[in-house]
């Protein structure tokens, strides 16, 4: 798997859905210099674990917005599938009420660029290209800073839902480091003491 941390987030243009609106040329480039981005992949619309994550992101959207973070979802479904899911009431398995954009990666190119695409293209005995497995995205999540650089990534297998709390914690840690130059030790939470590294960058001491 590719490690994108420290590298520019792969750029793309694709259709996306926000509420009832289909956006023709959606790109993360619009946020460079303006917002942080949490860009997350999920396997499929109309499934089981996925709506728990998407709805939880919506419930915590205000916390992300307070931190100047845009939340963007993506799967290999079409924009019409996204649209239908967004209009379906939650009691019927939908995610009605989700207001952040969902990107349609129907050509699988975005998932490939972020290296979260499950399944493989292989050649059969006749030399024909076939697919092994299912070409859908793992549960990848990428925190992108205001310069468009990936600063954090995590990828879960499909049965394993993510922690929104941990996502917010990492956002807080990144923003604390950017604001104060202090590094954040294990399990650091906003308001905890951080550390000031020494000149060699090998050891450090707590700031308080």
From TrEMBL:
Residues 3-176 form the Thioredoxin domain. GO terms for molecular function: thioredoxin peroxidase activity. The active site is at 50 (cysteine sulfenic acid (-soh) intermediate). InterPro entries: AhpC/TSA, Peroxiredoxin, Peroxiredoxin_AhpC-typ, Peroxiredoxin_C, Thioredoxin-like_sf, Thioredoxin_domain. The keyword Cytoplasm applies. GO terms for biological process: cell redox homeostasis; cellular response to stress; hydrogen peroxide catabolic process; response to oxidative stress. It is found in: Cytoplasm. It comes from the Bacteria. GO terms for cellular component: cytosol. Keywords: Cytoplasm, Disulfide bond, Oxidoreductase, Peroxidase, Redox-active center. Belongs to the peroxiredoxin family. AhpC/Prx1 subfamily. This is Peroxiredoxin.
